[in-house]
Amino acid sequence: MNRNSTLIFLLVPVVFSSCARRSYYLSPFNGNATTYYAKPLLADSAKSATYFSATFTAGRPNNQYYTYDGDGYEKQLTDNLKAFQFSFHRSHTSKYFQAYYGASFTTGTYEVTRFDSLHYYGNYANADLSKILGGHKYFAGAGLVGGINLVMPFRRGHEWRVLGIETSIGKEWGDYLDFRKSMPDSSATAISKNDHYGYIGLTSELVFKKRQNAFGIKWALGTSLYRTIELGKSDLRTTYVVPLYFSTTFQYSRPKFTVFTQINATEHAESVQLGASYKLSKIHHR
What we know:
Elements: H1 3-17, E1 24-25, E2 48-59, E3 65-68, E4 74-77, E5 80-93, E6 97-112, E7 115-116, E8 131-132, E9 135-153, E10 159-174, H2 175-182, E11 190-191, E12 196-210, E13 213-224, E14 228-230, E15 239-241, E16 244-253, E17 257-266, E18 269-279
Parallel strand pairs: 1-11
Antiparallel strand pairs: 2-5, 2-18, 3-4, 5-6, 6-9, 7-8, 9-10, 10-12, 12-13, 13-16, 14-15, 16-17, 17-18
């Protein structure tokens, strides 16, 4: 083998590794399980309330890979997720703290993008499952939610929910879970086969009150409570995917209704949520 042939042989893995198809089949709840839950303001005389909420989620999971179309242009491939979440929760407000707890049910579809993994160098593909068949996979889940935060009042009824903790735990079922469990571990970079999900995060929120209405912005930073083995990161030790998530929420509240938009970003997924909460309790204002 001459010098030029040796150089080409050494460069082939480097060149083709940029086209590596790193596929992550994680929980459909990755980054979107902890949505927004309304609470009474410090300025409200009713310090407890019960809410019913409905939330629509549109997301792009498994979005960390690229390919080239027929004209030579790079494009990002992605799976797609659409879901509806319904929940009941109870909220309490005291002089220094606010808290909520409740239960949620989610149903939706996960669209798996079809691909031939053997076209990609470094995908650790299983030859018996080189072609992942695309299609819509039904999924559902039910669980418990809760959170607590320190709150600080400002003039004119404004408040700063200084620092809080939010959490969501639950159980998943459906076609998408069966699909993940049927895949050999070597057929993708990471495959979550756990039928439970759980997330915990830190939050902060500013709420501005105007007469009987309020609007606010909330930030959250958290992590999954479960981890998934990730192939290919290291030959010396086992590495794991433990997704972190960051969300920003914009909410607007009237006496009986709260509407919100939440933008979620996490490892290997992104999503947007549109939701509304209806206060079932009686209304009292100062």
